[in-house]
Amino acid sequence: MELPFAESWKIKMIEPIHRSTREQREQWLKEAHYNVFQLRADQVYIDLLTDSGTGAMSDRQWSELMLGDESYAGATSFYKFQAMVRKIFGFEYVIPTHQGRAAENVLFSYLVKEGNVIPGNAHFDTTKGHIESRHAFAVDVTIDEAKNTQLELPFKGNVSLEKLEKVLVENKGNVPFMVLTVTNNTVGGQPVSMQNIKDTCRLCHKYNVPVVVDSARFAENAYFIKTREAGYADKTIKEIVREMYAEADAATMSCKKDAIVNMGGFIATNNKQWYDGAMQFCIPFEGYITYGGLNGRDLNAIAQGLDENTEFDMLNTRIHQVAHLAAKLDEYGIPYQRPAGGHAIFVDGDKVLDRVPKEEFPAQRLTCELYLEAGIRACEIGYILADRDPVTHQNRFGGLDLVRLCIPRRVYTDNHMDVVAAAMKNVYDRREEVNHGVAIEWEAPLMRHFTVRLKML
Ligand SMILES: *Cc1c(COP(=O)(O)O)cnc(C)c1O
Fold first, then answer.
1. Where on the chain is N6-(pyridoxal phosphate)lysine found, per UniProt (predicted)?
2. Is 256 domain-assigned?
3. 234 and 344 fall within a common domain
4. How far apart are CA 156 and CA 144, in angstroms?
5. What is the best residue among 214, 261, 263, 409 to mutate for testing ligand 1's pocket, by most ligand atoms within 8 Å of CB?
6. Domain end marker among 276, 308, 340
7. For ligand 1, is residue 99 a contact (CB within 6 Å)?
8. Residue 9 burial (CB < 10 Å; 0-12/13-18/19+)?
């Protein structure tokens, strides 16, 4: 008999979690203004809000904490971190920051000017925020097929070269860089192919536009290249990663994702001028350039995390769990962004609650229903997250309205995934009874989804 699949690790430490009653959850959600970000974590049974900073560190990462060098400048921890970033990504200059958005803040403070146009394959919300807050424009150039949630494509996160070229031609001299996000989070954790990465870099370079790779899930992207793209099956993840970055100009990284630490980020580049420019913003925002808002011990844990999460078995265990949840949802007929992405399943909110008008934010309503059903915290990646158009101030209903079931790395078992799927099925089975969504009572002008206050309709 062929042996079944099993995780490539065993568990050394556990953390208890607790169920609650529906009555309790109704009260708690009301107090949270129907925004699950405002729940207390101990009011949640299974927390799929995000995979950011919520992973379980390995025994080796915990040991690295003890070796942290907390010297203000020139700590050995910095050099260990810098050496690993250089080895994995092939970039010479490395600036640590306290998380991914801080890397954006530091680099964009140097690069982005008012009125600039910055194309990208669906900018992440903080990336968009850092562009728009500087009165520049983030233009989405993802392939159109990404919007069709039922289409099975191996690399649905790809850049449309046609759309990209149009932006580059129409805005000559006004595009400081292009943002290539791997994997493409906003359209469903979908990977970008090696071919598309190379074509994108070459097209940008033809117009003298540099490429900044938003790298949060670079290792998962490399896993999909290895398992889906012709010619890569026999390459190691580390070899694939080096090839992904070979023609790119810089990386911004949220280490809270694929470096499997609770906090951290960095900028990496071979461009000395960018390094010198960005460095000047690192010091006032993040701190001296060899710690960038991080403890020495954190830098050590990042180095170790980058090394172990660019090994095939670690990634295979993770992607297998995402696929396990996807298979359960298939069994129950629940529509989600196909194929399953690297870090999450994105359930199609407005297809599940198809009686709720888009002006009432169906995916947000579904997020609330899932919490009420079983204490599972998911996250709306839809019309609320999309914010308002900076010029017209209208809600942006042009994209997808998804509920993200985001899976922390090495934290939950497949049994937890089965509970999530069953809860989603129960909501799905009573979808005919949900005719209304939610309404906004208060919202922030940018990145409103974190703090928005809602009421149930
Ligand atoms: C998480 C993330 C960021 C921002 O990183 P933080 O560490 O949360 O500040 C930027 N881009 C992408 C694609 C991300 O997933």
1. 257
2. yes
3. no
4. 9
5. 214
6. 308
7. yes
8. middle
